[in-house]
Write a structure and sequence with these properties.
single chain, 420 residues, alpha/beta, six-stranded parallel beta sheet, 14 strands, 44% helix
C-alpha cells in the first residue's frame, strides 16, 4: 500500500527546515509518518519549502517542495483563485500572502498526487492551511482520510478567525454527509463534534489515540544528574509539567495550587516546568509572588534527552490544561511509570484513565487541584504497573490502528464524492 501524508509541517530536529515549530502537532505527525513507514510505503508532502531527499533512515520519502515547483505547477485557475483570495482576505499583508500561497500551492499538491498515484492520502488538520489538500483530493477523486489533532472551532481559548472555525465546522458536516473517513485523537473530541456540529452519532469518525515510544528505562544514563543539579535530596518528590508555558496549558493555576499544599509537602517536593515561556514571564512572576522560587523551576525548552532523565526520577505528572485534545505528556509519563493528576473534563480522559495511574480532579478550582496533587503525592504507586498500562498507547499500536482504518474505510470502500 502506498500512502501519501499531507501536513502543514512536522517537527524533526535533524532537519533544519522542520526544527522551527516544536509543537505537539509537529512531533505527533512526525511519529505517525515514521511509524506507518515501518510497515508500508510512505511519502510526505508539507507546506514547508524544502529540497527533495529521502529520510536519513530510509523509512519514508520526503517530497521536495521548492518555490520553482510551486510557481511552475500552478495552472491559470490556481493563479486566479490565489489573486482573488489575496484581495478577499482580511488582516495583515502577511495573512493575505499566506492564504494566497495556500491557493497557489494547489498546483504542486495536484501534481504530487497525480505523479505518485497513492492508494491513500492522509491529511492532518482542518483549516485554511489544509483546505486545498481536501479540495484537490476531491477534484482528483482521490481516496483520503483526515485526522484532527484538536478542535479549534470549539475552543474559545484558541485565537483564530471565524473563517477558520467555519472551515472546521463545514468540513465535518460535509464529511458526515458524504461518509468521508475522519479520525480524532480522543473520545471527547468525537463526542463534542457529534454534540455541537452534527447532533447525532458520527459513523464516519474513528478514535485513534496518540502513541508514544516505550523506552528501555535501564538504558537511560545519568538520571541522578537531575537531583544533583538542583540540590534535591533522595526523598524529595519530583513533579513534572510538560508543555509550552501558555494560557491554555494553565501553569499559573498549578503554581497557585502548589502554594496551597501543606508546608511539609512543599518542602519535600520540587516542580519542573518544561517548555518555552510564551507568557512573557507571568508564571515566573507568580512563582516569586508566592515565595516558591526554591521549589518550582521553569526550565524553558528541554531536550528529549533531558525530559527522559526527569521522567525517570519523577513521582508525578501534572496536567491542568483549560483545553486538551489528548494530553501527550500523560502517556509519555505513563511510559516511565509516572502517574498523572489532571481534570476530569479533558477530552481524552475516557481513553486514558486508569485508577492505578491517574488521579482525577472533578472541580476546576485551585483548592481541588491542590487536593488532587496532595492525594497523588501521598499515594503509593506501582511504577511497573503503570509502565505496563502505557503499552496500550505505544507508537506501534497507533500505526496499526491507522493502517487498519485505511484498509477498512478506504481500500475496501468507494471513492468519495466530489465536494459541492
Amino acid at each position: 500500500m502506498k500512502i501519501m501524508i499531507l501536513a502543514p509541517y512536522i517537527y524533526d530536529k535533524d532537519m533544519p527546515e522542520f526544527s522551527i515549530n516544536k509543537t505537539g502537532f509537529g512531533i505527533m505527525v512526525n511519529d505517525i509518518v515514521k511509524s506507518i513507514a515501518e510497515i508500508e510505503e510512505v511519502e510526505l508532502v508539507t507546506r514547508v519549502i524544502t529540497d527533495a531527499r529521502r529520510k536519513h533512515d530510509g523509512k519514508y520519502k520526503l517530497i521536495s517542495h521548492t518555490w520553482k515547483q510551486v510557481i511552475m505547477s500552478a495552472n491559470i485557475g490556481d493563479w486566479a483563485m490565489s489573486i482573488k483570495v489575496f484581495f478577499a482576505t482580511k488582516g495583515t499583508l502577511k495573512d493575505k500572502l499566506r492564504k494566497m500561497f495556500y491557493c497557489l500551492d494547489r498546483g504542486y499538491v495536484r501534481k504530487c498526487i497525480m505523479t505518485s498515484n497513492p492508494d491513500v492520502v492522509h491529511i492532518h488538520g482542518i483549516g485554511s492551511i489544509t483546505k486545498s489538500y481536501i479540495e484537490i483530493c476531491e477534484e482528483l477523486q482521490q481516496k483520503y482520510m483526515v485526522t484532527l489533532h484538536g478542535l479549534i472551532g470549539l475552543n474559545e481559548s484558541v485565537k483564530v478567525s471565524e473563517d477558520e472555525r467555519n472551515i472546521e465546522k463545514n468540513f465535518l458536516r460535509y464529511a458526515d454527509e458524504k461518509n468521508i473517513p475522519v479520525s480524532v485523537i480522543s473520545s471527547g473530541m468525537k463526542n463534542r463534534i457529534e454534540k455541537n456540529y452534527l447532533m447525532h452519532t458520527a459513523d464516519n469518525i474513528t478514535v485513534i489515540t496518540n502513541g508514544t515510544h516505550i523506552p528501555d528505562i535501564h538504558k537511560i544514563d545519568d538520571k541522578d544528574d537531575i537531583r544533583r543539579k538542583y540540590n534535591l535530596s533522595d526523598t524529595c518528590k519530583i513533579c513534572v509539567v510538560i508543555g509550552s508555558i501558555m494560557e491554555r496549558k494553565n501553569q499559573i493555576q498549578i503554581v497557585e495550587a502548589f502554594a496551597q499544599l501543606d508546608e511539609d509537602i512543599r518542602e519535600n517536593c520540587a516542580v519542573f516546568m518544561c517548555g518555552r515561556d510564551m507568557l512573557e514571564g507571568a508564571v515566573e512572576k507568580r512563582i516569586s509572588e508566592l515565595g516558591c522560587e526554591k521549589r518550582i523551576f521553569t526550565l524553558g525548552f528541554v531536550s528529549h534527552k533531558e525530559i527522559e532523565k526527569i521522567l525517570q526520577v519523577a513521582d508525578l505528572n501534572i496536567v491542568a490544561s483549560l483545553d486538551e485534545g489528548f494530553g501527550l505528556s500523560i502517556i509519555e509519563a505513563y511510559a516511565y511509570g509516572v502517574p498523572t493528576v489532571t481534570f476530569s473534563d479533558l477530552d481524552a480522559i475516557t481513553d486514558l484513565y486508569e485508577a492505578n495511574a491517574m488521579i482525577l480532579v472533578e472541580k476546576r478550582n485551585t483548592e481541588s487541584l491542590a487536593e488532587g496533587m496532595k492525594t497523588a503525592l501521598e499515594k503509593k504507586w506501582n511504577k511497573e504497573e503503570i509502565r505496563n498500562y502505557s503499552r496500550n498507547f505505544s507508537i506501534e499500536n497507533m500505526a496499526a490502528l491507522y493502517l487498519e482504518s485505511y484498509k477498512e474505510k478506504l481500500i475496501g470502500g468507494g471513492t468519495p464524492k466530489k465536494m459541492s
